Amino acid sequence: MGFHLILWFFMFSRVFLLIILSFPLFNCSIHSQNCSPGWKITGFYTPLETDYKSSKRTLVDIEQNGKTLLNSEFVEKVMIEGWGKTTQNWYLGFYSGNWHKSEQPLNSLGQPLSIGQVAVDTNNIPKGSLISIPSIQGAFKNIEFIAVDVGSAIIDQHIDIYTGEGEQAKYKTWNVTGIHQVCIKG
């Protein structure tokens, strides 16, 4: 009799634990969240010109600031990522087909870009929306993101997470990339 009671308790506790652990997956509408699977998650970061060792230079015409020579590999990366930090400690941005200079990397609202901000397709997610990605791992696992940026490659169910500056931030972009469930608070 004692053995059957122990076996029953073991089986029941495993089922109970499974139900408790999977509760957020069944009820993602808690706290007025709208959750859906199949979102493409990528990351973007701010490259540092000091990380590029090529001697090849590119002449960049910065809106309202004139022309300057910068590392060619760095300039190419800024065209992809949006902003980069120069060796002179100011930021070079590329958007709307023009080069820009700033004291900080900026989001599409003209505010400083920071960890926890994401770029979205505003046809699917309004700017200012709070977003969670329950299955994401690593440094961004428990962050509540805010939609404040856009990008020409961010279309439909695609979210691009800002991961910071430099090589470590570049590696973090690889860690967040994948297909995930996304919950939008609204």
Unreliable segments of 5+ consecutive residues: 3-30
Sheet with the most strands: spatial strand order: 1-10-7-9-8-11
- Provide mean pLDDT, rounded: 86
Order of helices and strands: HEEEHEEEEEEEHE
- Superfamily (CATH H level) name of the largest domain: RlpA-like domain
Secondary structure tally, helices: 3
The CATH class name of the largest domain reads Mainly Beta
Q: Per CATH, what is the topology of the largest domain?
A: Barwin-like endoglucanases
Word description of this protein:
The protein is α+β, with helices and mostly antiparallel strands and 186 residues long. It has two domains: 96 residues, Beta Barrel (Barwin-like endoglucanases), CATH 2.40.40; 54 residues, no CATH class. The chain has three helices and eleven strands. A six-stranded mixed barrel has the order 1-10-7-9-8-11. It has a three-stranded antiparallel sheet with strand order 4-5-6, with helices on one face. A hairpin with a 3-residue loop joins strand 2 and strand 3. The termini are far apart. The N terminus is likely disordered.
